Amino acid sequence: MSMIRLASWIVILPIVRYARIVRYSKYIGSLMIDMSRIHSKWLVVISVLFGTFTVILNNSMLNPTLPYFMETFDADAVAVSWLLTIFMVSMGMTMPVTGYLGDHFGKKKIYMIGLAVFIVGSVSGALSSTLPLIITSRAIQGIAGGLMMPIAMALIFNSFPKNERGLAMGLYGIAAMVAPAIGPTVGGVVIEFFTWPFLFLFNIPFALAGIFFCGKFLKPTEKDTELKFDLVGFILITIGVGSILYALGRGSTVALLLSPLSLSLLVLGVVFIVLFVKYENRQVSPLLDLSIFKIPTYSVSIMVTATASIGLFSGIFLLPLLLQNVYGFSEIETGLLFLPAALVSGVFMTLGGKLLDKKGPKYVIPVGLVILGGFTLALGFNTLSTSFWTILILNCIRSAGLGMGNMPATTTGMNAIPDKVVTQGSAMNNVIRQIFASFGIVFFSIYYEVRKAQVFTQINDMQEATLQAINEAFMVAGVFILLVVPVSFIMKGTEELKRRKKSV
Question: pTM of this prediction?
Answer without folding.
Answer: 0.79
